[in-house]
Amino acid sequence: MSVIASAPAVDVPGLYPAGHPRTVGQIEGFALSAIAPALAVIFTNPFDTIKVRLQLQGESPSARPTAANASSAANAQPSGAKPAPKVYRNSLDAFAKILKNEGMRGLQKGLTPAILREGSKNLFRLGMYDPIMSVLHDPAEGSAPGWKRMVAGSICGAMGAVSCNPFELVKTRLQSSSAKALAVGHQHNYAGVWDALRSIMQREGFAGLYRGSMLSMVRSIVGSGTNLSAYSLMKEYLLVEQKWPDNAFLDMACGLASGIVSCIFMNPIDVTRTRFYNQPYVNGKGVLYSSGVDAVRKIATNEGPAAFYKGFITHFLRIGPHFCLTFVFLGVLRRSLAGLYADMDAREAFQSLDRDGDGVLDEHEVELAVQRIIPNDDEKATAYYAQRIIEKADHDHDHLISFSEFRDMESEVKAIVKERKRQ
């Protein structure tokens, strides 16, 4: 099951002057894949800010050095150092304190790079899923197995992680920056997105923009693999087996469920990546962690395995609604575009069937339409189908089909074609 396309429609070539209907193509798919999550993150970014603060909380006190004394702080860091005191008791406390001390702007820190991240990441993460699945699996063989969906999602995740890493890095550092009383982790004190990018380039070089890219790739491989496979499997089951309608509620249910699955697998990697992103760097080297593996070892040693699930509730409150809104927006945008294309097809089809150009289809024109759309040598069958279509679509009982009634004529034609295919 595609994450972009809707359930397959009845194929009625004769209904369309071009021989086939307009569909949401790959170019539109890429655009929708970038727009939908960029809209979703506007609503979910506050939870991401809280998650970052909670994940940085408890890091060794040497996580807060300035660039001038970072090197000596690194040498002074003892194994098993006593964690810094807690600033935030839990997610709700973090929300209240950030809102009180920093306002709504504090909760929305990093929003601009978050939007850029979602757009650049999902251009590949969502946009490439269908093309990759088409290579891995032939739809004629039936439903794709879960492992193929997992592989496709993982590949998409890796591509998306590489494309968005600079924005992810900047977002994390901006979100960690806070009022002194609420400071957790190292404080970079950037003035904004472009100041952050310029500062990183000046102090850490171009490679600095790709700090933690391997961690991001691992996180995205795991996250996208589980998310997209869970979403597509559930959507296919509910559409095909349970006969749910393809609407926003379906997108919401599948998106939320896939978010739960992803969060369970991603949170340990997310904690590690947040720490690695936010640490200070001196001469291109991390003060606290030399690598992702080193970060895992130190977090486990100093804080215990439970530390890898810090911020889990807030993480889910961020990615659960985020995936939910992403797939809802994606579905709404896709259905709206498909609806626009269907309306354009309907107008062209109506004009081609309206042979005398009077703006309506009379009974003779409906019969000619049936002959073109549903080839049949039996004149009685043709007349029967034409009468059936008129009875279904002629709401004002004037024996004429106007354009406002043509969409119902389309529906009845497709129902007849579907019945004939079953025979």
Automatic annotation (TrEMBL):
Compositional bias per record (Low complexity), positions renumbered to this chain: 61-81
Domain EF-hand: 341-376
UniProt cross-references to PROSITE patterns, sorted A to Z: EF_HAND_1, EF_HAND_2, SOLCAR
Major localization class: mitochondrion
Solcar repeats: from-to residues: 24-135, 144-237, 246-336
CDD domains registered for this protein in UniProt: EFh
Membrane topology recorded in Swiss-Prot or TrEMBL: Multi-pass membrane protein
Protein name: EF-hand domain-containing protein
Natural source organism: Polyrhizophydium stewartii
